[in-house]
Write a structure and sequence with these properties.
The chain has 3 helices and 6 strands, in the order H-H-E-E-E-H-E-E-E. With about 110 residues, it is α+β, with helices and mostly antiparallel strands. The N and C termini lie far apart (about 30 Å). The mean pLDDT is about 90.
């Protein structure tokens, strides 16, 4: 499902970067945003470390937003999806929606 949400340009951009910002919501609904290092898996899902507040929030509310962007030129990918804890302090995001800006095919 994740690969269908993210196109080749988005996946290429995500693989070229290392840090994104993960937004979760706490039990009271309070948003929480933190930078995380991530890895793009073959199926287009993303794995990242989840500890402390992130882990607590994901345990109670799996809906998240994730943004990876870069400057010079401005470009990025924003993802909405569901994250699940998959191991000790490790989580996986399965994108459900995504949009990008400033990404251009090679050679254009």
């Amino acid at each position: 499902m994740a690969a269908a949400v993210l196109g080749d340009l988005e996946l290429g951009f995500l693989r070229s970067q290392r840090i994104g910002r993960l937004a979760t919501a706490g039990p009271s609904g309070q948003p929480h945003v933190m930078p995380v290092m991530y890895q793009v898996l073959e199926d287009g899902s993303l794995e990242f470390d989840a500890d402390g507040v992130k882990l607590r929030n994901l345990s109670s509310e799996p809906r998240v937003a994730f943004v990876v962007d870069a400057m010079g030129p401005k470009r990025g990918v924003a993802i909405q999806g569901r994250a699940s804890v998959i191991g000790h302090e490790r989580a996986r995001l399965r994108p459900r929606r995504a949009f990008s800006w400033g990404l251009e095919p090679s050679g254009s």
